Amino acid sequence: MNNLIKFILGLLIGLTWEVNAATTFTTGYDWSEGNYGSTTSTTIHYIPLTVKFQQSNWNMKFTLPWLQMSGAAVTVDSSGNVISTSGATTSVSGVGDLLGSYTYHFPAMGNDMNHFVDGTIKVKLPTADEAKGLGTGETDLSLQLDYAYNSKMVMPFATAGYKRFGQSTTVSLEPVWYSTLGIQFNGTKRSSGILWDYQQATSTTSSAKSEWMVYLTSKISKQWSSTLYYVSGNSDSSIDNEMGFTISVTK
Predict the structure, then answer these.
(1) How far is CA 133 from CA 87, 192, 193, in A?
(2) pLDDT tens across 7-36, in order?
(3) In this predicted model, what pLDDT tens digit does every residue of 64-117 receive, in sequence order?
(4) pTM score, two decimals?
(5) Which helix (DSSP H) or strand (DSSP E) does residue 8 occupy?
(6) Is 71 in contact with 85 (CB distance < 8 Å)?
(7) What are the CA-CA distances from residue 34 to residues 52, 81, 179, 191, 232 (Å)?
(8) Is the Cβ–Cβ distance between 166 and 139 less than 8 Å?
(9) How far is CA 85 from the centre of its chain?
(10) Distance CA 111, CA 42 (A)
(11) Across the chain, where does the E strand assignment appear?
(12) Which of 54, 138, 221, 251 could disulfide-link to 59, CB 3.0 to 4.6 Å?
């Protein structure tokens, strides 16, 4: 990171502490494997460290992961998702790209105030080793809208977003639209859900990404929570299988 990026990150984090935002720390483990259109499978181990600052109408979040990849050489984004492949076989590990986001929660709408809309801007900063395929070496920008209808026990939700990749000298990626459709079932201490993720192809030689996820979130205590999930892909650019967990604590 250059000095300007460090200054901006320090300023934003400092502002969140000044307004006494609630702070949530999250980590976990993610395992995935897939061919991604290649004849050789790639396995990825992904361990994120996330800090989120939450106020009543906004939140700011930063995620820095560690990754280990083996199999067909690939290039991944900040979430450990494969965005390009090559024919070589490799085994690499290291710190991934830093992902920062700012989300604004619009006032609740509807007669029962149970329609919720969020607007999010995401910036991926190139902190990963481009030569290892742990990132593209460029800055990416995403704009996203989220909608949820909370009827207490059942909550359908949807996402629509646009992502523009930085132009790398080694990986050529086109801007893409992406979306999510899902439904969540809420309990007193647990919630579960299923969702479908779709993203346009990032190049003329790749296919669109299509994946299904099921998850279970448990409230361990007032401060602690955890999530278990499983993902299955049904396109050449998607993972074949993915599973993992996260654990969070709020101060």
Answers:
(1) 13, 34, 32
(2) 555 655 565 555 567 899 999 999 999 887
(3) 999 998 887 666 665 656 656 665 677 889 999 999 999 999 999 988 889 999
(4) 0.88
(5) helix 3-18
(6) no
(7) 30, 11, 21, 28, 10
(8) yes
(9) 20
(10) 49
(11) 22-34, 42-54, 58-76, 82-95, 98-105, 115-125, 140-149, 154-164, 176-186, 190-199, 209-219, 224-233, 241-250
(12) 54
* CA distances, 88 to each of 20, 29, 91, 153, 219 (Å): 49, 26, 10, 49, 43
Hey, what are 57's tokens?
């109408």
As given in the structure block, the two tokens for residue 17 are 């502490």
- CA–CA separation, 121 and 133 (whole Å): 25
- Record the tokens describing residue 173, joined without a space: 């990626």
Using the predicted structure, report yes or no on whether residue 1 has a pLDDT greater than 50.
Answer: no
Q: Which amino acid is at 169?
A: T
Amino acid residing at 88: A
Asked if residue 247 lies in contact with residue 224, where contact means CB atoms within 8 angstroms, the answer is yes
All structural domains of the chain: 3-250 (2.40.160.40)
Q: What is the DSSP letter of 131?
A: G
